[in-house]
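# step 3/5: fold
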Amino acid sequence: MPLTDTKIKTAKSKDKSYKLADGEGLYLLVRSSGTKSWQMKYRFLNKEKTLTLGKYPEINIKGARRLKFEAKSLLSENIDPNQNKKDKIQSFKKDHENEFIEVAERWYKNQLPRLSQKYAIKTHRLLSGWVYPIIGKLSIKKISTRDILDVLRAMEKKGIGETTRKTKGLIEQVFTFALAEGLVDNNPATGVEKALKALPPVQHQRHLPFKRLGELVIKIKQDSGSTVSQLSFLLLIHTMVRTNEVRWMEWTDIDFEKKLWNISAEKMKMRKGHIVPLSKQALVILEQLKMINGRSRYVMNSTVKADQPMSENVFLDLLKRIDMTSATTTHGLRGTASSYLHDLGENTLAIEKCLAHSDKNKVRDAYNHTDYLDERVILMQKWSDIIDQKNVVRIAS
């Protein structure tokens, strides 16, 4: 006689497990522990087998009968329901193993030794902020070009075209890694940029006309902001370095006796160590900064967070206060120095070394171990003297 809901609900556990038959091989197994589960007896290739359908009350009587009919349908096609169940579980596991986020994290860890701290953080933020929320949980084998395009189009809508293309590059690298590991057969990110909106022409960093250099220096000295930001900005101009190289400068990086600033590879954009000769003017600025931040780790130590440099927006905010943002960027000041020194006829290779630029000819760069240090010492002093002269001329006028 078929089971009823009442009979199932009121079935009590006993010292030994027992069965309540529903018909056609389906029964409820009541264990001594009190748990109840649906099972089905069937024969396949002349062997008696048991198929577990699930627990009660998660599966009610109607659900159990439906599963029984599905099993009988498989048997009519000479398919073993137990084997079919195992195959589905295996298929599910395959669909969910090697999720994109797992593979991407393995790729990221492999890249860390060659990435600067800043770039490593930026890379992970792009992945975790834009990519993982959309395709992170998908099996890497199941991801299509359309899925990747969905990630990139979401970024495009935010108006970050250049960052969108950088993210596409990261995804492509993850799939190249997956190809090498034998996890995928192709790279669906290849060529997807052709479906993105064209980028506007590149706007190069504005660099200050040399004739306005004195004006800039005076305005920095007259700025209403902190003394540390003023002095640090002046140091950036005198040393021709990038913003982050000044921000992350530590007192231990400076050799006052040899008049050199040693920037480690991890702090450099190109991951190559750089030595900066310090002019008399740069050393004076550093001595002034030492009186303020000499006990801190960083030369530009934050006033808010201990053992952290000032925000990367410090110099941008200063340029805004002195109304010079339309005239130049901090990075553009490197171009001002480069252009003027080239106009003076100085050695191009020495100037490029001052700017920590690598030779675009990779073969030539690999064999060129000359750092032009002696020449750069003279060059950096000449540049500082020029800055001072512009300053004096501006004041006089």
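# step 4/5: annotate
Confidence is low (pLDDT under 50) at residues 362-369, 393-397.
# step 5/5: archive (pending)
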